[in-house]
Write a structure and sequence with these properties.
There is one protein chain. The protein has 706 residues and is of the alpha/beta class. The chain has 22 helices and 16 strands. Strands 4-5-3-6-7-8 form a 6-stranded mixed sheet, sandwiched between helices. Strands 13-10-14-9-15-16 form a 6-stranded mixed sheet, sandwiched between helices. Strand 15 and strand 16 form a beta hairpin. The chain is flat, with a radius of gyration of 36 Å.
Length: 706
């Protein structure tokens, strides 16, 4: 009854019968000595592993008649049984404190076993804990110790449960023994943790709406999409960007979306833009509360309200002919008894969603309207305003991303005209633009790509992570080069992990990578002049050896003009080390499958969340990559990372836009440099194989089942 001790499986009369075994002679025989702690005794301090003779008694319903049978148990099992019988006796007497002390003494040996037999007894044909087969649930086939006990029905089944407990106790002791002697490992854990913690990270707790604010060509969409990607990949949030411009393009032709459409003095166009914003708002709310459990709650409440409305209308008609249009039950069109916000007040049903309302939102009236649409819903609203006063940056943004918008598809060969039209669109918004300064709102101001940041009413883990991320990103295009180390000795031997040196083929790739870095990464393609570049590796030998042929000359910094920049200055990060395989480090996949078949199967089923025994999972690597990604986002120079397969899979998946659960199966071959250039709507990818005559097989090809 408490912690699943064997005594809890006995019937009431059985417990009373066992309680009568407490005379001094029987207890002395059971304990094997005058004190439980003496050698041979069965107290907690006594010697383990010895066997004792325990007289098993059968008794009638009153517990008055005993028939003795001799039974041999191990000391641990007997100790458990005696302690349990004492516990049952004390429970009958109403004394709980001795029971609790005994249960603490029993510890995990009396914990509820996952393999315990249900109350119905052992299945037909199953094996008794004492070795002989049990033919059925009526006791046929029991060993001679139990055939004549005279137990009937439920009592016999309860006896079978005790047998199962004894078997579990023995098997548990055998598996926990150490050193090959009779001394056993004992864990005093009377209240074990039953439910393991969730494997997913990033339970953000609440729903958030991020409202972008700013003039066109200020990088709002770029920020929204990058931030959404970061929160989804590293913090497990479900994110989605609702761009109002996309709703406009779906409903209007490109020629209708010229600069005149954004003239705020034209009322018709103003109403159209407001209707597109309403479409995006409705879809955003649907996304935030679309989970099945939430919808089921809404459905049930709606049905209840419809019934109440019908009752109200009927009662009103019977009394005075009123259709209830002014009553509390609802209007003539079946309006809900509760407001819309009541339906969505289910904060615990689905959390962890972040929606982005991406538009200019340049007036206080528009921002007030947004707040009114979300009023009463269980979520947080944060406004992010992007301000740019650098004309050169604005010009670059227009030419790089705006003149190629679908709005100007019909002007594909007339980019100058598209540029002029977009500049006029900006001028129309500048006439009505009102900067965010409402003290009652939560907002973040980013000035000139994060050179200056102002925050108001921002608190909580996730909002602060957003601020940290936004201060690092920028709209300037920059590239990352990802490369695995050259072939290592463990690659050649089909082993995973380790810290081995490069093979001859690996050394050849290191030479090729040094030449590629100095000629391609560190040189401006347009001017042919040297440009600053960066280099990261892990702390393991094979990556350091792969990068050792990359030169590190000093060059002039483009901003200061002084010879102070060390080209490809080598930084070593342990956070880039390969996934640690724990006890499987240095083994082949075939060896893992033979020695740890259950772990091998679990990894096959869920490779992203699976954690090697005493090792890591892909999910664990995300925690150490999070700060490095912040650093990468802040760079404007090209960065070469010489790393490992698992780590580069995650970095590649993050920038390319893959789901993190799909990353463990992405292809990152040897002898190949992957160039990634993130942009607002996508990421450019280029793969350069440097050593065509060297096999790209890393020797770590997993079995076909993977």
């Amino acid at each position: 009854e408490k912690r699943g001790s064997p005594a809890s499986f006995l019937g009431e009369e059985s417990r009373r019968g066992l309680a009568r075994m407490q005379d001094s002679q029987e207890m002395a025989a059971l304990s094997g000595g005058s004190n439980p702690g003496e050698p041979g005794g069965m107290g907690v301090g006594g010697s383990r592993g010895a066997s004792v003779r325990l007289e098993s008694h059968s008794f009638d319903a009153t517990g008055a008649n005993f028939n003795s049978e001799e039974l041999t148990l191990s000391s641990d099992s007997a100790h458990t049984s005696v302690s349990s019988s004492r516990a049952s006796s004390q429970r009958d007497d109403g004394d709980d404190e001795p029971l609790r002390s005994i249960e603490r003494e029993i510890g995990t040996q009396t914990s509820l076993n996952a393999n315990a037999v249900p109350v119905g007894g052992l299945a037909s044909g199953s094996v008794s804990p004492f070795g002989s087969p049990r033919a059925d649930g009526n006791g046929k086939g029991l060993p001679s110790h139990f055939e004549d006990l005279g137990l009937s029905g439920a009592e016999e089944r309860e006896r079978a449960l005790i047998e199962e407990r004894v078997r579990d106790s023995r098997s548990g002791s055998q598996t926990s023994s150490s050193g090959g002697d009779s001394e056993e490992f004992y864990v005093n854990n009377p209240t074990p943790q039953i439910i393991p913690p969730p494997v997913e990270t990033g339970a953000v707790g609440e729903k958030h709406v991020i409202v972008m604010v700013g003039l066109p060509a200020r990088g709002k969409t770029h920020m929204a999409r990058r931030l959404a990607r970061y929160l989804a990949f590293f913090h497990g949030a479900r994110t989605k960007v609702f761009n109002v411009g996309e709703y406009r393009r779906k409903n209007l032709s490109n020629k209708q979306c010229n600069s005149d459409f954004f003239d705020h003095n034209v009322e018709k166009n103003k109403q159209l833009r407001a209707s597109f914003a309403k479409m995006a708002m409705d879809d955003m709310i649907q996304f935030l509360f679309e989970d099945r459990a939430q919808q089921q709650i809404i459905k049930v409440e709606s049905m209840e309200n419809m019934s109440l409305n019908a009752m109200g209308a009927g009662m009103g008609g019977a009394s005075n002919g009123d259709n209830g249009s002014n009553g509390a039950m609802g209007g003539p069109h079946g309006q809900s008894l509760r407001s819309r916000s009541d339906f969505y007040q289910q904060k615990g049903v689905d959390s962890g969603k972040v929606a982005f309302f991406d538009a200019t939102n340049t007036t206080k009236a528009r921002r007030k309207w947004i707040c009114s649409q979300l009023e009463g819903l269980p979520l947080k609203i944060i406004f992010i305003e992007s301000i740019c006063t650098d004309e050169a940056t604005i010009e670059k943004n227009i030419w790089d991303s705006k003149v190629t918008l679908p709005d100007y598809e019909h002007l594909k060969k007339k980019r100058e005209k598209a540029y002029t039209d977009f500049k006029q669109r900006i001028a129309n918004y500048e006439k009505v633009y009102q900067k965010v300064d409402e003290d009652n709102l939560s907002w973040v101001k980013l000035i000139n790509n994060g050179q200056k940041v102002v925050i108001n009413r921002i608190h909580g883990f996730l909002p602060m992570k957003m601020v940290q991320f936004l201060t690092n990103i920028h709209a300037f295009p920059h590239s990352f080069f990802l490369s695995r180390h050259g072939q290592s000795e463990y690659n050649k031997s089909l082993k995973i992990g380790g810290d081995s040196d490069l093979t001859e083929l690996g050394e050849q790739y290191a030479l090729d990578l040094g030449k590629f870095a100095s000629e391609k990464i560190c040189v401006d393609e347009e001017t042919g002049e040297a440009k600053p570049a960066r280099l990261w590796t892990s702390s393991l030998v094979r990556t350091v050896q792969t990068a050792r042929h990359i030169p590190h000359p000093k060059i002039k910094h483009p901003e200061t003009g002084r010879n102070e920049w060390i080209q490809m200055d080598h930084r070593i990060y342990r956070s880039l080390d390969e996934l640690y395989a724990g006890v499987c480090d240095g083994m082949t996949y075939e060896e893992i499958e033979q020695m740890y078949p259950e772990d091998f199967q679990r990894r096959q089923e869920d490779k992203f969340n699976y954690r090697y025994p005493r090792g890591e999972s892909y999910l664990d690597i995300l925690s150490r990559l999070d700060p490095l990604v912040m650093e990468m986002e802040s760079y404007r120079e090209p960065l070469l990372i010489v790393g490992h397969q698992a780590v580069l899979r995650l970095l590649y998946g993050y920038f390319i836009g893959k789901k993190r659960e799909d990353c463990p199966r992405l292809s990152i071959p040897l002898n190949t440099v992957i160039k990634l250039t993130p942009r607002t709507y996508d990421c450019e990818e280029e793969r350069i194989c440097l050593s065509t005559q060297i096999s790209q097989d890393d020797g770590q090809a997993e079995p076909p089942s993977h």
